[in-house]
Amino acid sequence: MPVIEITVAYYLGIDGGGSKTTCAVGDETSVLATALSGPSNITRVGEVRARESLHDAIRQACAAAKIDPRQVHRACIGVAGAGRQEIASAVHKIIAEVIAGEIEVVGDMQIALQAALGAGPGVIVIAGTGSIAYGRDAQGKTARAGGWGFAISDEGSAHWIGRTAVAALLRAADEAADDRAAQTSGLFREMKSIWKVESFEQLARMANTNPDFASLLPAVVAAADAGDELAEQVLREAGRELGQLVGIVVRRLFMGDNAVIPLAMAGGVFRYAAIVREAFCAAVHTLDPRLELKGQVVDPVAGALGMARRAG
User: Which residues is 35 bridged to in the sheet?
Assistant: First the structure.
């Protein structure tokens, strides 16, 4: 009796972010394994670190799925900056060093939209290390807002929150008759533990050396949760900024249409900062009655895996 050989197709999706990289491996219907590694945003961490993180995530996920990376039939990698040919080409080359199958490199906003809405219309807002709003209408037309980089944009992101919180704290110290109160504030206490500084002067020096402002997000969230008013103000402003990005995309894509507009959230800021979510929801509620916000924060890597499967 002849032996029938069953060939299984394996797919791989990656969400390459500025703080971490998530990789998922699956077959046609299920997720077999996921893995986490370090940051892989080339613009922020450079090609050497991005290669290390991407290769590590792929090898971990494939090992957990009990397959060899060379067995991957098709991969989709979502990264910030993929619209620039030099970034997309660099990422493609890095992945091709490990995977022999087909490789597609797309923007992080595209995999997030896929994870949230599939092929349907709507808007996704990503607030992680950076931020962006991205939408698609019923005819397939797309539009974006924000996401122009941490130096001039990325409103409401972890980087924006950290930088804004430092600036607000130093302004409060300037305005205080006695800065001892500011130095004992919950916000400064939390920042000190992360950046290892002991004074406002050291904080300012650190802030002016192009540091990782996104690393301060846990400090701002912890201070706000403990009742620090300044930290809470920064987080609420972040939520409003993200709401403004939604408004831009809605105006560009959905004017004159009475249909419901699905809206979804992605990224660590939404996941870990309840105050940002609350302020964002309040802003969206008053922005446009057609917007229907999905309460669950989506995982973009699911969209990358879905796009890898769909490409075939």
Answer: 23
**Which two tokens mark 113?**
């939209």
Closest CA to 129 of 282, 287, 5, 300: 300
* pTM, to two decimals: 0.91
What value does the mean pLDDT of the chain take? 93
Q: HSE (CB half, 13 Å, CA atoms) of 229?
A: 2
**Per-residue tokens: 100:** 């022999």
Q: For 48-87, b where at least 16 C-beta lie within 10 A, e where not — what string?
A: eebbbbbbbbbbbbbeebebebebbbbbbbbbbbbeeeeb
Mean pLDDT of 155-169: 97
For residue 150, give the 3-state DSSP assignment.
Answer: coil
Instruction: Report the side by side order of strands in the sheet with 261-266.
Output: 142-145, 131-136, 122-127, 261-266, 291-298
Give the residue ranges of DSSP H helices in 69-208: 85-96, 108-117, 158-175, 180-183, 186-195, 200-207
244-265 average pLDDT score = 94
Q: How far apart are CA 179 and CA 174, in angstroms?
A: 8
Question: How many Cβ atoms from other residues are within 10 Å of residue 312's Cβ?
Answer: 10
Provide the 3-class DSSP secondary structure of residue 13.
strand
Sign for the pseudo-dihedral over CA of 23, 65, 113, 244: negative
CA atoms lying within 13 Å on the CB side of residue 208: 7
| 3-state SS, residue 152 | coil
**Measured between alpha carbons, how far apart are the two ends of the chain, in Å?**
32
